[in-house]
Amino acid sequence: MTSYEPVIGLEVHAELLTRTKMFCDSPVVDTTSALPNTAVCPVCLGLPGTLPVINRRAVELGLRVALALGCEVPSFSVFARKNYFYPDLPKGYQISQFELPLAIGGRLPLRTEGGTKSVRVQRVHLEEDTGKLFHVEAARPYSLVDFNRAGVPLLEVVSEPDLHSVEEVKAYAIELRRLLCYLEVSSGDMDKGAIRLEANVSLRPMGQQELGTRVEIKNLNSFRALAHSVEYEIQRQQDVLEKGGVIRQETLGWDESAGATVIQRSKEEAHDYRYFPEPDLPPLEVDRAWLDRIAASVPELPHARLERLAGQYGLSLSEADRITAEKAIADYFESAVAAARVARPKMVAAWLVGDLFGLLNAKGKVLVRPEGQPEIAPDELASLVDLVASGTVSAPTAKSLLEAMLDTGKSARGLVEEGGLAQIDDAAALEGLIARVLSDHAEQVELYRTGKRTVLEWLLGQVMKASQGRANPSRVRSLLEEQLSSATPKG
After folding, report:
1. Rounded Cα distance, 144 and 364, in Å
2. What does the alpha-carbon distance between residue 436 and residue 446 come to, in Å, rounded to a whole number?
3. What helix, strand, coil percent values describe the chain, rounded to 5?
4. According to the model, what pLDDT value does residue 420 have?
5. Nearest to 59 by CA among 299, 219, 287, 300
6. Which residue ranges of the chain lie beneath pLDDT 50?
7. Measured between alpha carbons, how far is 307 from 315 in angstroms, rounded to an integer?
């Protein structure tokens, strides 16, 4: 039986964070909440006699991405008309870039369970978004169109077909989204369509260099949909080929409820769109000085920051990966580490990605609110972890404190003083607690002294319970073993 190798490339469309649209001064609005067709003008509606003007800010954001990917940026690029008819395309064509894009080449490094890999980027180009259709189910079904999104700046990043598994496809998409968010060029909000994914999938016999016939899966708006649709399509194509069938070049959609790809239309080639240079826009010139200024604004990139955090702070790659998933989280972590006086960075990381993330998820909250304010300030998390590291409070008490900090907004030290929650470490106080427990549980003490050592853990638990969780566990264990080994418990 012939073995097949999947060959996959991704096209990623990202809405750029500009105030106005790509070729006019209509505002960019949240299309999930704004009233339909209120953020429009004659230009983005494609009315006769209107002229587009290139949004400089959109170009700058696109160049930030191109530089971060290590692309070659030509001195000139050209906008073109991509002609096709669809109800959400008001002009009957889309202004995009074709033969001379904003940037070419480049690479995106990514990490998978199989190791590290560098995926080639074919091109980066600018274009305008379309409107949005709403299909209404009724006795006589009909559709509505909202043009608020029409003309919103889009950046398209097209990879080479360097991906060969579902894991690699998902890792590439996640890493590219992470990069776009770090560069602050896109919100990355996939629920609102800020990033949309399209996968080109083909199979070829193992060892063959020639590519197989590809299909394109359009408009995927989540990593889950991307992974499931690509996985399904690989299996579908393999079944067809094993039965001697032929793969047809098609554009597919993903039906989430059916868990299957569905045919939308036969796949268009470039000539089907009848590209030609946009006559109303001059070539876009990017001079060296402008490019240098943009390059100076590019921050530390996520893969570089991941490696730095792992090396500088002794984190595992999985810890560093979770912390660098969002720039706001990485910034928060480094602020907390800088504020910690006793706790080591690895301990801060454990409390952040473990306990704090767990609580936030349970309460439906995020670390940093949309307005930029954290739920718990990084120096307050550092203060809490310092209390644990110094032995002032026990880990169980600290977990309760963390939840109280989230619920009340109070500081860790303030809550400790208010509730008298400081850990009991005084030997005399602990010996008194232990003596009372041993006196109350003479039968268990006798079992321990006859060789049943597992009773020690039960007695330790009783002491912790008697201290309301405030006793220092390691100190209790040492003193408990000492009293149990003596002929008469101390009191």
Report:
1. 33
2. 15
3. 40, 20, 40
4. 65
5. 287
6. 487-491
7. 9
Q: How far apart are CA 381 and CA 30, in angstroms?
A: 33
Three-class DSSP category at 192: helix
Q: Give long-range contacts, CB 8 A cutoff, 24+ apart: 479-485.
A: 479/427, 479/430, 479/431, 479/434, 480/434, 480/456, 481/456, 483/431, 483/434, 483/435, 483/438, 484/438, 484/445, 484/448, 484/449, 484/456, 484/459
Cα(295)–Cα(106) distance, integer angstroms? 15
- Nearest C-alpha neighbor of 386 from the set 368, 409, 364, 413: 413
Are 127 and 97 spatial neighbours (Cβ–Cβ below 8 Å)? Answer: yes
Instruction: Give the domain 427-485 fold.
Output: Arc Repressor Mutant, subunit A (1.10.10)
CATH 1.10.10.410 in the chain, residues?
427-485
- Of 383, 417, 400, the C-alpha closest to 468 is 400
Is the sign of the CA dihedral 286, 292, 297, 301 positive or negative? Answer: positive
Q: Which residue has the tokens 């998978």?
A: 112
Which residues touch 46 (CB under 8 Å, ≥6 apart)? 90, 91, 92
- pLDDT of 475: 72
Give the separation between CA 419 and CA 475, rounded to whole angstroms.
22
Distances (CA, A) of 38 to 28, 151, 345: 11, 13, 50
Name the residue with tokens 């930029």: 372
Residue 277 tokens read as: 């240079």
Separation of CA 119 from chain center: 19
- Residues 183 and 175: beta-carbon distance below 8 Å: no
